[in-house]
Write a structure and sequence with these properties.
single chain, 116 residues, three-stranded antiparallel β-sheet, 3 strands, alpha+beta
Length: 116
């Protein structure tokens, strides 16, 4: 199921679009956003992390963002899985204390002793 994003024209009839270039150390990021759509981010490591290289990538990243928003403007909603069933509690005696453990068999006792 695809959802169309409502058009939000600006004064000149084009859609509002926000582009952010971030360079931190050896990694650069181009972020593109438009109203009522989730942001689209692309990172460029290493030599591409310069302003000159990012400007060259800008038209392609914006085109990819617009194409993705045409198909799915918002990320899919997260459906949280049901919690696992609760672990059974130990049986209680009438005084509210845990019940005494069952007697171990002679064989279980011998196996335990062999382990130590």
């Amino acid at each position: 199921m695809t959802t169309e994003a409502p058009e939000t024209p600006s004064s000149n009839g084009r859609q509002e679009l926000k582009v952010v270039l971030t360079i931190r150390g050896e990694i650069a990021t181009i972020g593109v956003q438009r109203p009522l759509c989730d942001p689209f981010l692309v990172s460029f490591p290493g030599d591409a992390a310069t302003l000159e290289n990012l400007v060259g990538h800008l038209p392609g990243v914006v085109a990819r963002a617009v194409a993705r928003w045409g198909e799915t403007p918002l990320y899919p909603k997260y459906d949280r899985p049901a919690p696992p069933p609760a672990a059974p509690r130990p049986a209680r005696t009438t005084q509210g204390r845990p019940a005494a453990p069952q007697q171990t068999t002679q064989r279980e006792a011998e196996q335990t002793l062999r382990l130590f």
